[in-house]
Specification:
Length: about 575
Protein backbone atom coordinates (compact mmCIF):
# COMPACT_ATOMS: atom_id res chain seq x y z
CA UNK A 1 0.00 0.00 0.00
CA UNK A 2 1.33 3.48 -0.87
CA UNK A 3 2.88 5.27 2.08
CA UNK A 4 4.40 8.64 2.94
CA UNK A 5 7.34 7.00 4.69
CA UNK A 6 9.78 7.08 1.73
CA UNK A 7 9.27 10.83 1.32
CA UNK A 8 9.46 12.16 4.88
CA UNK A 9 13.22 12.27 5.42
CA UNK A 10 14.14 13.44 1.92
CA UNK A 11 11.49 16.15 1.42
CA UNK A 12 12.23 19.68 2.60
CA UNK A 13 9.88 21.90 0.55
CA UNK A 14 6.08 22.11 0.78
CA UNK A 15 3.99 23.58 -2.04
CA UNK A 16 0.47 24.72 -1.12
CA UNK A 17 -2.20 25.28 -3.75
CA UNK A 18 -5.99 25.45 -3.43
CA UNK A 19 -6.22 23.50 -6.70
CA UNK A 20 -4.01 21.13 -8.67
CA UNK A 21 -4.56 19.35 -11.98
CA UNK A 22 -3.09 15.95 -11.20
CA UNK A 23 -5.01 14.01 -13.84
CA UNK A 24 -8.29 14.60 -15.73
CA UNK A 25 -10.21 12.04 -13.65
CA UNK A 26 -9.44 13.92 -10.42
CA UNK A 27 -11.58 17.07 -10.41
CA UNK A 28 -9.30 19.04 -8.12
CA UNK A 29 -8.73 22.02 -10.41
CA UNK A 30 -10.68 24.90 -11.93
CA UNK A 31 -8.29 26.45 -14.42
CA UNK A 32 -4.86 27.90 -14.99
CA UNK A 33 -3.75 28.02 -11.35
CA UNK A 34 -4.42 24.31 -10.92
CA UNK A 35 -2.90 23.40 -14.28
CA UNK A 36 0.26 25.26 -13.30
CA UNK A 37 0.39 23.44 -9.94
CA UNK A 38 0.05 20.10 -11.71
CA UNK A 39 2.81 20.95 -14.17
CA UNK A 40 4.95 22.05 -11.21
CA UNK A 41 4.48 18.66 -9.55
CA UNK A 42 5.33 16.82 -12.75
CA UNK A 43 8.52 18.83 -13.24
CA UNK A 44 9.52 18.41 -9.58
CA UNK A 45 9.37 14.66 -10.13
CA UNK A 46 11.32 14.92 -13.40
CA UNK A 47 14.04 17.05 -11.78
CA UNK A 48 13.99 15.22 -8.42
CA UNK A 49 13.26 18.40 -6.46
CA UNK A 50 12.25 17.33 -2.91
CA UNK A 51 8.72 18.80 -2.71
CA UNK A 52 5.49 17.64 -1.07
CA UNK A 53 2.28 19.13 -2.47
CA UNK A 54 -0.72 20.08 -0.35
CA UNK A 55 -4.22 20.82 -1.69
CA UNK A 56 -7.89 20.14 -0.94
CA UNK A 57 -9.65 16.94 -1.95
CA UNK A 58 -12.56 18.81 -3.62
CA UNK A 59 -14.81 15.76 -3.94
CA UNK A 60 -17.46 17.73 -5.88
CA UNK A 61 -14.88 19.40 -8.09
CA UNK A 62 -15.24 22.92 -9.45
CA UNK A 63 -18.45 22.23 -11.36
CA UNK A 64 -19.74 20.39 -14.38
CA UNK A 65 -20.85 22.88 -17.01
CA UNK A 66 -24.25 22.37 -18.62
CA UNK A 67 -25.17 24.54 -21.62
CA UNK A 68 -28.85 24.69 -22.58
CA UNK A 69 -30.30 25.30 -26.05
CA UNK A 70 -30.12 29.07 -25.51
CA UNK A 71 -26.47 29.00 -24.49
CA UNK A 72 -27.14 29.52 -20.78
CA UNK A 73 -24.63 27.94 -18.40
CA UNK A 74 -25.85 26.02 -15.39
CA UNK A 75 -23.70 24.10 -12.95
CA UNK A 76 -23.78 20.66 -11.37
CA UNK A 77 -21.37 19.11 -8.85
CA UNK A 78 -18.59 17.23 -10.62
CA UNK A 79 -18.12 14.35 -8.18
CA UNK A 80 -15.19 11.96 -8.46
CA UNK A 81 -14.10 8.92 -6.48
CA UNK A 82 -10.90 9.56 -4.49
CA UNK A 83 -10.45 5.88 -3.66
CA UNK A 84 -9.88 5.11 -7.35
CA UNK A 85 -6.70 7.19 -7.47
CA UNK A 86 -5.67 8.02 -3.90
CA UNK A 87 -4.96 6.28 -0.62
CA UNK A 88 -6.50 7.56 2.64
CA UNK A 89 -3.80 7.91 5.28
CA UNK A 90 -4.41 6.66 8.80
CA UNK A 91 -3.91 9.95 10.55
CA UNK A 92 -5.98 13.01 11.34
CA UNK A 93 -5.30 16.48 12.68
CA UNK A 94 -7.78 19.03 14.01
CA UNK A 95 -8.09 22.76 13.52
CA UNK A 96 -10.34 24.71 15.87
CA UNK A 97 -12.86 26.70 13.85
CA UNK A 98 -15.58 28.57 15.76
CA UNK A 99 -14.25 27.02 18.98
CA UNK A 100 -14.81 23.42 17.88
CA UNK A 101 -12.40 20.94 16.29
CA UNK A 102 -12.68 20.31 12.57
CA UNK A 103 -10.90 17.06 11.78
CA UNK A 104 -8.83 16.69 8.62
CA UNK A 105 -7.60 13.48 7.05
CA UNK A 106 -5.14 13.54 4.12
CA UNK A 107 -5.34 11.31 1.08
CA UNK A 108 -2.13 10.45 -0.75
CA UNK A 109 -1.57 10.54 -4.48
CA UNK A 110 1.92 9.69 -5.73
CA UNK A 111 3.05 11.06 -9.08
CA UNK A 112 5.73 8.97 -10.76
CA UNK A 113 7.76 10.44 -13.61
CA UNK A 114 9.02 8.37 -16.58
CA UNK A 115 12.40 7.63 -14.98
CA UNK A 116 10.75 6.51 -11.73
CA UNK A 117 11.20 9.43 -9.33
CA UNK A 118 8.13 10.22 -7.26
CA UNK A 119 6.57 13.20 -5.49
CA UNK A 120 3.72 12.99 -2.96
CA UNK A 121 0.51 15.01 -3.22
CA UNK A 122 -1.63 15.31 -0.09
CA UNK A 123 -5.32 16.08 -0.55
CA UNK A 124 -7.05 17.31 2.61
CA UNK A 125 -10.50 15.93 3.44
CA UNK A 126 -13.01 16.88 6.16
CA UNK A 127 -15.75 14.43 5.09
CA UNK A 128 -15.29 12.39 8.28
CA UNK A 129 -17.62 10.88 10.85
CA UNK A 130 -15.91 12.99 13.53
CA UNK A 131 -17.22 16.22 11.94
CA UNK A 132 -20.76 17.58 11.82
CA UNK A 133 -22.65 17.79 8.53
CA UNK A 134 -21.59 21.32 7.59
CA UNK A 135 -17.93 20.73 8.39
CA UNK A 136 -17.91 17.48 6.41
CA UNK A 137 -18.75 19.49 3.30
CA UNK A 138 -15.94 22.04 3.71
CA UNK A 139 -13.61 20.24 1.29
CA UNK A 140 -16.30 19.33 -1.24
CA UNK A 141 -16.66 22.34 -3.51
CA UNK A 142 -13.67 24.11 -5.06
CA UNK A 143 -14.21 27.88 -4.80
CA UNK A 144 -17.77 27.33 -3.65
CA UNK A 145 -19.94 28.95 -1.00
CA UNK A 146 -19.87 32.31 0.73
CA UNK A 147 -17.05 34.16 2.50
CA UNK A 148 -17.40 31.97 5.59
CA UNK A 149 -17.09 28.77 3.55
CA UNK A 150 -14.12 30.12 1.61
CA UNK A 151 -12.26 31.32 4.72
CA UNK A 152 -12.85 27.96 6.40
CA UNK A 153 -11.36 26.27 3.34
CA UNK A 154 -8.32 28.52 3.52
CA UNK A 155 -7.93 27.71 7.22
CA UNK A 156 -7.99 24.01 6.34
CA UNK A 157 -5.48 24.43 3.52
CA UNK A 158 -3.02 26.73 5.27
CA UNK A 159 -3.25 25.88 8.97
CA UNK A 160 -4.56 22.34 8.58
CA UNK A 161 -2.08 21.58 5.82
CA UNK A 162 0.97 22.67 7.77
CA UNK A 163 -0.20 20.69 10.81
CA UNK A 164 -0.67 17.56 8.71
CA UNK A 165 2.91 17.85 7.46
CA UNK A 166 4.18 18.42 10.98
CA UNK A 167 2.22 15.43 12.29
CA UNK A 168 3.83 13.13 9.75
CA UNK A 169 7.29 14.33 10.73
CA UNK A 170 8.35 16.34 7.67
CA UNK A 171 11.38 18.54 8.36
CA UNK A 172 10.62 21.48 6.08
CA UNK A 173 12.68 24.58 5.43
CA UNK A 174 10.56 26.15 2.66
CA UNK A 175 6.83 26.73 2.27
CA UNK A 176 5.76 27.79 -1.23
CA UNK A 177 2.37 29.53 -1.42
CA UNK A 178 0.85 29.22 -4.89
CA UNK A 179 -1.41 32.31 -4.67
CA UNK A 180 -2.73 33.72 -1.38
CA UNK A 181 -5.21 30.98 -0.48
CA UNK A 182 -2.73 29.29 1.88
CA UNK A 183 -1.45 32.50 3.47
CA UNK A 184 -2.83 31.58 6.90
CA UNK A 185 -0.04 29.04 7.26
CA UNK A 186 2.20 32.03 7.95
CA UNK A 187 0.15 32.72 11.09
CA UNK A 188 0.72 29.18 12.29
CA UNK A 189 4.44 29.74 11.71
CA UNK A 190 4.27 33.00 13.66
CA UNK A 191 2.82 31.16 16.62
CA UNK A 192 5.54 28.56 16.31
CA UNK A 193 8.17 31.33 16.38
CA UNK A 194 6.66 33.32 19.22
CA UNK A 195 9.26 35.27 21.22
CA UNK A 196 9.21 34.63 24.98
CA UNK A 197 7.85 37.61 26.90
CA UNK A 198 11.13 38.10 28.79
CA UNK A 199 13.02 38.52 25.49
CA UNK A 200 10.67 41.09 23.99
CA UNK A 201 11.76 44.63 23.34
CA UNK A 202 9.15 47.32 23.97
CA UNK A 203 6.78 47.98 21.05
CA UNK A 204 8.08 44.89 19.23
CA UNK A 205 5.54 42.28 17.97
CA UNK A 206 5.74 39.04 19.96
CA UNK A 207 6.85 36.99 16.94
CA UNK A 208 10.09 36.31 15.12
CA UNK A 209 8.88 37.60 11.76
CA UNK A 210 12.34 37.19 10.18
CA UNK A 211 12.27 33.44 10.85
CA UNK A 212 8.89 33.13 9.12
CA UNK A 213 10.00 35.18 6.12
CA UNK A 214 13.10 33.06 5.73
CA UNK A 215 10.89 30.02 5.20
CA UNK A 216 8.14 31.36 2.90
CA UNK A 217 7.97 31.81 -0.86
CA UNK A 218 4.91 33.49 -2.37
CA UNK A 219 3.84 33.40 -6.01
CA UNK A 220 1.08 35.85 -6.84
CA UNK A 221 -0.90 35.24 -10.02
CA UNK A 222 -3.46 37.94 -10.52
CA UNK A 223 -3.23 41.62 -11.42
CA UNK A 224 -7.03 41.82 -11.17
CA UNK A 225 -7.98 43.51 -7.90
CA UNK A 226 -11.06 41.31 -7.40
CA UNK A 227 -8.86 38.23 -7.57
CA UNK A 228 -7.23 38.96 -4.21
CA UNK A 229 -9.17 37.31 -1.38
CA UNK A 230 -10.33 39.67 1.36
CA UNK A 231 -12.27 38.81 4.50
CA UNK A 232 -13.67 40.88 7.33
CA UNK A 233 -11.80 40.78 10.62
CA UNK A 234 -15.11 40.14 12.32
CA UNK A 235 -15.41 36.88 10.33
CA UNK A 236 -11.78 35.96 11.08
CA UNK A 237 -12.26 36.53 14.80
CA UNK A 238 -15.44 34.45 14.76
CA UNK A 239 -13.75 31.53 13.02
CA UNK A 240 -10.30 31.76 14.69
CA UNK A 241 -10.80 33.68 17.95
CA UNK A 242 -7.51 34.66 19.57
CA UNK A 243 -5.38 32.82 17.00
CA UNK A 244 -3.06 35.82 16.69
CA UNK A 245 -3.15 39.31 18.15
CA UNK A 246 -5.56 41.31 15.99
CA UNK A 247 -3.39 44.44 15.95
CA UNK A 248 -0.45 42.39 14.67
CA UNK A 249 -2.62 40.77 12.01
CA UNK A 250 -3.90 44.15 10.82
CA UNK A 251 -0.35 45.44 10.53
CA UNK A 252 0.45 42.50 8.27
CA UNK A 253 -2.77 42.02 6.28
CA UNK A 254 -4.34 45.49 6.03
CA UNK A 255 -6.09 47.82 8.43
CA UNK A 256 -9.65 47.41 7.13
CA UNK A 257 -9.90 43.83 5.85
CA UNK A 258 -7.81 40.69 5.95
CA UNK A 259 -6.11 40.79 2.55
CA UNK A 260 -4.56 37.37 1.94
CA UNK A 261 -2.20 38.70 -0.72
CA UNK A 262 -0.86 41.42 1.55
CA UNK A 263 -0.44 38.93 4.40
CA UNK A 264 1.62 36.70 2.13
CA UNK A 265 3.63 39.66 0.81
CA UNK A 266 4.56 40.71 4.35
CA UNK A 267 5.54 37.24 5.57
CA UNK A 268 7.33 35.82 2.54
CA UNK A 269 11.03 36.38 2.03
CA UNK A 270 10.77 35.73 -1.72
CA UNK A 271 7.85 37.04 -3.76
CA UNK A 272 7.42 36.64 -7.49
CA UNK A 273 5.07 37.38 -10.32
CA UNK A 274 4.53 34.93 -13.15
CA UNK A 275 5.85 37.04 -16.04
CA UNK A 276 8.09 40.08 -16.29
CA UNK A 277 5.20 42.41 -17.04
CA UNK A 278 3.14 40.88 -14.22
CA UNK A 279 5.95 41.48 -11.72
CA UNK A 280 5.96 45.15 -12.75
CA UNK A 281 2.16 45.38 -12.48
CA UNK A 282 2.23 43.75 -9.04
CA UNK A 283 4.88 46.23 -7.94
CA UNK A 284 2.55 49.09 -8.90
CA UNK A 285 -0.40 47.46 -7.09
CA UNK A 286 1.63 46.80 -3.94
CA UNK A 287 4.40 49.42 -3.79
CA UNK A 288 7.26 48.88 -1.41
CA UNK A 289 7.78 45.16 -2.03
CA UNK A 290 10.48 43.55 -4.10
CA UNK A 291 8.71 41.42 -6.71
CA UNK A 292 10.85 38.97 -8.64
CA UNK A 293 9.81 37.63 -12.04
CA UNK A 294 9.75 33.92 -12.84
CA UNK A 295 7.73 33.46 -15.99
CA UNK A 296 5.45 30.44 -16.00
CA UNK A 297 6.07 27.37 -18.11
CA UNK A 298 4.20 24.22 -19.07
CA UNK A 299 5.11 20.56 -18.74
CA UNK A 300 6.53 19.41 -22.04
CA UNK A 301 5.41 15.80 -22.08
CA UNK A 302 1.91 16.49 -20.73
CA UNK A 303 0.93 19.03 -23.39
CA UNK A 304 2.68 17.65 -26.47
CA UNK A 305 0.53 15.58 -28.84
CA UNK A 306 1.67 11.97 -29.24
CA UNK A 307 2.66 12.48 -32.89
CA UNK A 308 4.92 15.44 -32.02
CA UNK A 309 6.30 13.60 -29.00
CA UNK A 310 7.39 10.72 -31.25
CA UNK A 311 8.98 13.15 -33.70
CA UNK A 312 10.90 14.96 -30.95
CA UNK A 313 12.07 11.69 -29.44
CA UNK A 314 13.47 10.59 -32.79
CA UNK A 315 15.58 13.74 -33.19
CA UNK A 316 16.06 14.95 -29.60
CA UNK A 317 15.87 11.87 -27.32
CA UNK A 318 16.26 13.87 -24.07
CA UNK A 319 13.66 16.55 -24.92
CA UNK A 320 11.28 15.58 -22.11
CA UNK A 321 13.90 16.20 -19.45
CA UNK A 322 15.61 19.03 -21.32
CA UNK A 323 13.01 20.82 -23.45
CA UNK A 324 15.66 23.41 -24.30
CA UNK A 325 16.84 20.92 -26.94
CA UNK A 326 13.81 21.96 -28.96
CA UNK A 327 15.73 25.11 -29.88
CA UNK A 328 16.96 22.91 -32.75
CA UNK A 329 13.46 22.53 -34.19
CA UNK A 330 14.45 24.20 -37.47
CA UNK A 331 16.31 20.97 -38.26
CA UNK A 332 12.99 19.14 -38.45
CA UNK A 333 11.47 18.29 -41.79
CA UNK A 334 8.58 20.50 -42.91
CA UNK A 335 6.67 17.43 -44.09
CA UNK A 336 7.14 15.59 -40.80
CA UNK A 337 6.01 18.60 -38.77
CA UNK A 338 2.94 18.99 -40.96
CA UNK A 339 2.14 15.28 -40.72
CA UNK A 340 2.16 15.56 -36.91
CA UNK A 341 -0.07 18.62 -37.06
CA UNK A 342 -2.54 16.87 -39.36
CA UNK A 343 -2.75 14.03 -36.82
CA UNK A 344 -3.44 16.45 -33.94
CA UNK A 345 -5.93 18.43 -35.99
CA UNK A 346 -7.74 15.25 -36.96
CA UNK A 347 -8.19 14.35 -33.30
CA UNK A 348 -9.74 17.76 -32.63
CA UNK A 349 -12.04 17.53 -35.66
CA UNK A 350 -13.28 14.14 -34.49
CA UNK A 351 -13.87 15.36 -30.95
CA UNK A 352 -15.84 18.41 -32.13
CA UNK A 353 -18.03 16.15 -34.27
CA UNK A 354 -18.66 13.74 -31.36
CA UNK A 355 -19.30 16.52 -28.82
CA UNK A 356 -21.40 18.92 -30.89
CA UNK A 357 -22.34 17.27 -34.19
CA UNK A 358 -20.52 20.03 -36.11
CA UNK A 359 -18.29 18.77 -38.91
CA UNK A 360 -15.19 20.96 -39.24
CA UNK A 361 -13.25 21.08 -42.50
CA UNK A 362 -9.81 19.60 -41.69
CA UNK A 363 -8.29 21.62 -44.56
CA UNK A 364 -9.59 25.01 -43.38
CA UNK A 365 -7.86 27.08 -40.72
CA UNK A 366 -9.07 26.48 -37.15
CA UNK A 367 -8.78 29.34 -34.67
CA UNK A 368 -8.85 28.11 -31.06
CA UNK A 369 -9.93 30.18 -28.04
CA UNK A 370 -10.36 28.50 -24.66
CA UNK A 371 -10.00 29.97 -21.17
CA UNK A 372 -11.99 31.12 -18.17
CA UNK A 373 -14.95 33.11 -19.43
CA UNK A 374 -14.72 36.45 -17.67
CA UNK A 375 -14.74 40.10 -18.63
CA UNK A 376 -11.04 40.93 -18.89
CA UNK A 377 -10.38 37.88 -21.11
CA UNK A 378 -12.70 39.54 -23.70
CA UNK A 379 -14.13 36.38 -25.29
CA UNK A 380 -16.38 38.52 -27.52
CA UNK A 381 -13.59 40.62 -29.05
CA UNK A 382 -13.33 38.43 -32.17
CA UNK A 383 -17.02 39.13 -32.81
CA UNK A 384 -16.93 42.90 -32.32
CA UNK A 385 -17.64 43.51 -36.04
CA UNK A 386 -19.51 40.55 -37.52
CA UNK A 387 -19.67 42.05 -41.00
CA UNK A 388 -15.89 42.40 -41.06
CA UNK A 389 -15.47 38.85 -39.76
CA UNK A 390 -17.85 37.47 -42.38
CA UNK A 391 -16.11 39.44 -45.13
CA UNK A 392 -12.64 38.13 -44.41
CA UNK A 393 -13.98 34.59 -44.04
CA UNK A 394 -15.64 34.80 -47.47
CA UNK A 395 -12.22 35.37 -48.97
CA UNK A 396 -10.48 32.63 -47.00
CA UNK A 397 -12.33 30.13 -44.75
CA UNK A 398 -11.99 30.49 -41.00
CA UNK A 399 -13.39 28.15 -38.34
CA UNK A 400 -13.61 29.07 -34.66
CA UNK A 401 -13.62 26.61 -31.77
CA UNK A 402 -14.39 28.05 -28.33
CA UNK A 403 -14.47 26.62 -24.81
CA UNK A 404 -14.44 27.84 -21.24
CA UNK A 405 -16.33 28.03 -17.97
CA UNK A 406 -17.63 31.10 -16.18
CA UNK A 407 -17.56 31.13 -12.38
CA UNK A 408 -21.10 30.45 -11.10
CA UNK A 409 -21.23 33.95 -9.57
CA UNK A 410 -19.78 35.72 -12.63
CA UNK A 411 -22.92 37.01 -14.33
CA UNK A 412 -20.98 38.83 -17.05
CA UNK A 413 -18.98 35.72 -17.87
CA UNK A 414 -22.10 33.59 -18.10
CA UNK A 415 -23.75 36.20 -20.30
CA UNK A 416 -20.70 36.12 -22.60
CA UNK A 417 -21.19 32.37 -23.08
CA UNK A 418 -24.85 32.98 -23.92
CA UNK A 419 -23.90 35.69 -26.41
CA UNK A 420 -21.32 33.40 -28.04
CA UNK A 421 -24.06 30.87 -28.71
CA UNK A 422 -26.33 33.58 -30.14
CA UNK A 423 -23.48 34.74 -32.39
CA UNK A 424 -22.71 31.18 -33.52
CA UNK A 425 -26.33 30.75 -34.65
CA UNK A 426 -26.26 34.08 -36.42
CA UNK A 427 -23.05 33.13 -38.26
CA UNK A 428 -24.34 29.71 -39.29
CA UNK A 429 -23.64 29.11 -42.97
CA UNK A 430 -21.16 31.99 -43.06
CA UNK A 431 -18.55 31.33 -40.38
CA UNK A 432 -18.29 27.97 -38.64
CA UNK A 433 -18.27 28.71 -34.91
CA UNK A 434 -18.63 26.00 -32.28
CA UNK A 435 -18.56 26.02 -28.47
CA UNK A 436 -17.27 22.92 -26.66
CA UNK A 437 -19.02 22.48 -23.27
CA UNK A 438 -17.42 21.45 -19.98
CA UNK A 439 -13.89 22.63 -20.72
CA UNK A 440 -11.37 20.48 -18.85
CA UNK A 441 -7.82 19.17 -19.08
CA UNK A 442 -8.65 16.63 -21.80
CA UNK A 443 -10.47 19.14 -23.99
CA UNK A 444 -7.60 21.60 -23.48
CA UNK A 445 -5.03 19.06 -24.67
CA UNK A 446 -6.96 18.51 -27.91
CA UNK A 447 -7.57 22.21 -28.51
CA UNK A 448 -4.01 23.44 -27.97
CA UNK A 449 -2.66 20.69 -30.24
CA UNK A 450 -5.31 20.62 -32.95
CA UNK A 451 -5.90 24.31 -33.65
CA UNK A 452 -3.91 26.08 -36.36
CA UNK A 453 -3.86 29.42 -34.54
CA UNK A 454 -4.27 30.10 -30.83
CA UNK A 455 -6.09 33.33 -29.96
CA UNK A 456 -5.77 35.26 -26.70
CA UNK A 457 -7.42 38.65 -26.21
CA UNK A 458 -6.99 39.86 -22.59
CA UNK A 459 -7.36 43.51 -21.65
CA UNK A 460 -3.81 44.69 -20.80
CA UNK A 461 -2.31 44.61 -18.22
CA UNK A 462 -4.73 42.13 -16.65
CA UNK A 463 -3.22 38.89 -17.99
CA UNK A 464 -0.74 37.78 -15.35
CA UNK A 465 0.98 35.24 -17.56
CA UNK A 466 -1.20 32.80 -19.48
CA UNK A 467 0.05 29.34 -20.37
CA UNK A 468 -2.32 27.95 -23.00
CA UNK A 469 -0.35 29.58 -25.81
CA UNK A 470 2.82 27.93 -24.51
CA UNK A 471 1.11 24.54 -24.78
CA UNK A 472 0.04 25.38 -28.32
CA UNK A 473 3.64 26.15 -29.28
CA UNK A 474 4.81 22.67 -28.25
CA UNK A 475 2.54 21.46 -31.05
CA UNK A 476 3.65 23.97 -33.65
CA UNK A 477 0.45 26.02 -33.26
CA UNK A 478 0.96 29.73 -33.91
CA UNK A 479 -0.13 32.38 -31.42
CA UNK A 480 -2.21 35.44 -32.26
CA UNK A 481 -2.40 37.39 -29.04
CA UNK A 482 -2.64 40.74 -27.33
CA UNK A 483 0.77 41.82 -26.06
CA UNK A 484 0.32 41.01 -22.39
CA UNK A 485 1.60 38.45 -19.89
CA UNK A 486 4.05 35.89 -21.25
CA UNK A 487 3.43 36.84 -24.91
CA UNK A 488 5.38 40.09 -24.51
CA UNK A 489 8.45 37.93 -23.90
CA UNK A 490 7.72 35.33 -26.59
CA UNK A 491 6.36 37.25 -29.56
CA UNK A 492 8.68 37.72 -32.50
CA UNK A 493 6.36 39.32 -35.02
CA UNK A 494 5.82 37.13 -38.06
CA UNK A 495 8.23 34.51 -36.71
CA UNK A 496 6.66 32.88 -33.62
CA UNK A 497 3.21 34.33 -34.26
CA UNK A 498 1.51 37.71 -34.34
CA UNK A 499 0.65 40.45 -31.87
CA UNK A 500 -2.57 42.35 -31.39
CA UNK A 501 -1.57 45.64 -29.89
CA UNK A 502 -2.64 48.81 -31.66
CA UNK A 503 -4.91 51.11 -29.71
CA UNK A 504 -6.11 50.95 -26.15
CA UNK A 505 -9.76 49.90 -26.32
CA UNK A 506 -11.93 47.03 -27.53
CA UNK A 507 -12.82 48.64 -30.86
CA UNK A 508 -9.22 49.34 -31.83
CA UNK A 509 -8.00 45.95 -30.65
CA UNK A 510 -10.77 44.26 -32.64
CA UNK A 511 -9.82 46.23 -35.76
CA UNK A 512 -6.19 45.21 -35.33
CA UNK A 513 -7.25 41.57 -34.84
CA UNK A 514 -9.19 41.63 -38.12
CA UNK A 515 -6.25 43.27 -39.90
CA UNK A 516 -3.89 40.58 -38.67
CA UNK A 517 -6.25 37.81 -39.79
CA UNK A 518 -7.02 39.38 -43.17
CA UNK A 519 -3.55 40.57 -44.13
CA UNK A 520 -1.15 38.15 -42.43
CA UNK A 521 -2.59 34.99 -40.88
CA UNK A 522 -5.09 33.78 -43.49
CA UNK A 523 -3.03 34.67 -46.59
CA UNK A 524 0.00 32.90 -45.15
CA UNK A 525 -1.96 29.75 -44.28
CA UNK A 526 -3.66 29.40 -47.65
CA UNK A 527 -1.10 30.85 -50.04
CA UNK A 528 2.34 30.21 -48.53
CA UNK A 529 2.26 26.77 -46.88
CA UNK A 530 6.07 26.47 -46.86
CA UNK A 531 6.43 29.70 -44.87
CA UNK A 532 3.63 28.59 -42.52
CA UNK A 533 5.48 25.37 -41.72
CA UNK A 534 8.69 27.28 -41.14
CA UNK A 535 6.82 29.48 -38.65
CA UNK A 536 5.54 26.36 -36.91
CA UNK A 537 9.14 25.24 -36.41
CA UNK A 538 10.12 28.74 -35.28
CA UNK A 539 7.35 28.63 -32.67
CA UNK A 540 8.66 25.32 -31.34
CA UNK A 541 12.29 26.42 -31.40
CA UNK A 542 11.75 29.89 -29.92
CA UNK A 543 8.91 29.20 -27.46
CA UNK A 544 8.80 25.55 -26.38
CA UNK A 545 12.53 25.46 -25.65
CA UNK A 546 12.13 28.17 -22.99
CA UNK A 547 8.52 28.48 -21.78
CA UNK A 548 8.42 25.12 -20.04
CA UNK A 549 8.08 24.07 -16.42
CA UNK A 550 11.53 22.45 -16.31
CA UNK A 551 13.13 25.87 -16.78
CA UNK A 552 10.59 27.42 -14.40
CA UNK A 553 11.33 24.92 -11.61
CA UNK A 554 15.09 25.18 -12.04
CA UNK A 555 14.69 28.90 -11.43
CA UNK A 556 12.50 28.38 -8.36
CA UNK A 557 15.01 25.87 -7.01
CA UNK A 558 18.04 28.14 -7.41
CA UNK A 559 16.47 31.54 -6.71
CA UNK A 560 13.66 30.87 -4.24
CA UNK A 561 14.31 27.55 -2.50
CA UNK A 562 18.09 27.83 -2.00
CA UNK A 563 18.17 31.30 -0.48
Amino acid sequence: MPSLDPFISRTHIAYFSMEIAVRPEMHTYAGGLGILAGDTARSCADLEIPVVFVTLLSRAGYFRQIIDAEGRQTEEPDWWEPERWCTPLNAMVAVEIERKPVWIRPWLYIHTCPHGHQVPILLLDTDLDQNDRDDRALTHHLYGGDDSYRLKQEIILGIGGIRVLRAFGFDLHTYHLNEGHAALLTLDLLNRWRIPAEDLIAEEPPYDVAEVRARCVFTTHTPVDAGHDRFSYELFERLLPGFVELDVLKSLAGADRLNMTRLALNLAGFVNGVARSHAETTGHMFPGYRIHAITNGVHAETWTHAAFAQLYTRYFPQWRHEPELLVRALQLSDDEVWRCHVSAKGDLVRHVKEATGVALDPHALILGFARRMTGYKRPLLLFEDLDRLIGLTERRPLQVVLAGKAHPQDGDGKDAIRQLHVIARRLQGKVTCVFLPNYDMQVAKMLVAGSDVWLNTPLPPLEASGTSGMKAAFNGVLNLSVLDGWWIEACIEGVTGWSIGHGDDDRRHAADLYDRLDNAVLPLYYEEPARWRTMMKQAIGNIAYYFNSQRMMRRYATEAYLR
